[in-house]
Amino acid sequence: MSVATEPFSVRMEVRVYEIDPQLHLNGGFYVQYADHARFACVQAAGVSVDDLIRGGLGPVNLETVIKYHRELRGGDQVDVTCEWEWSGGKTYRVRHAFRRADGVVAAEVSHVSGLLDLGTRRLVADPRSEWRNRAGSPGLLGLE
């Protein structure tokens, strides 16, 4: 299993319209923040999602787990990391830590993902090599 040594991270601000009646970040936005961080990571690694899709492949999430540790409230700055883990099968895992500006981990989101062949509607056998072949900076995707 390969994991990047220094995870990619993107900073976001919790916006007021993302707050629920308990005055903290609504749960659905954790998934959206994780998706945003993963997309930014893929772009930083030099992968064109448009080219990926034109090539007949699309990333899919098969499982998403959210673990809440501390609140995120309106105006909070949060750094969302993106770490890729490869096991050699049709799926891989992407983990996200949500760290407040004070360094406290507010939440963790993890996905089991794969690459869908858009023609056959089946997962590709070796997503690791598909990502590596497209990445200019494969280390950001945990691929050395």
Describe this structure in words.
This protein has 144 residues and is α+β, with helices and mostly antiparallel strands. The chain has one domain: Hotdog Thioesterase (Thiol Ester Dehydrase, Chain A, Roll), CATH 3.10.129.10. The protein has three helices and seven strands. Strands 1, 2, 3, 4, 5, 6 and 7 form a seven-stranded antiparallel beta sheet that branches. Strand 6 and strand 7 form a beta hairpin. It is elongated and about 45 Å long. The chain starts with a strand and ends in a 10-residue tail after the last helix. The mean pLDDT is 94. It comes from Actinomadura napierensis. This is Acyl-CoA thioesterase. InterPro entries: 4-hydroxybenzoyl-CoA_TE, HotDog_dom_sf.
Output the number of helix runs. Answer: 3
> How many structural domains does the protein architecture include?
1
Please give the number of β-strands: 7
Q: How large, in whole angstroms, is the Cα Rg?
A: 16 Å
The overall pLDDT, averaged over residues, is: 94
CATH architecture: Roll
The global form is: elongated
Q: Roughly what percent helix?
A: 10-25%
- The CATH class designation is Alpha Beta
| Major sheet | 7 strands, antiparallel
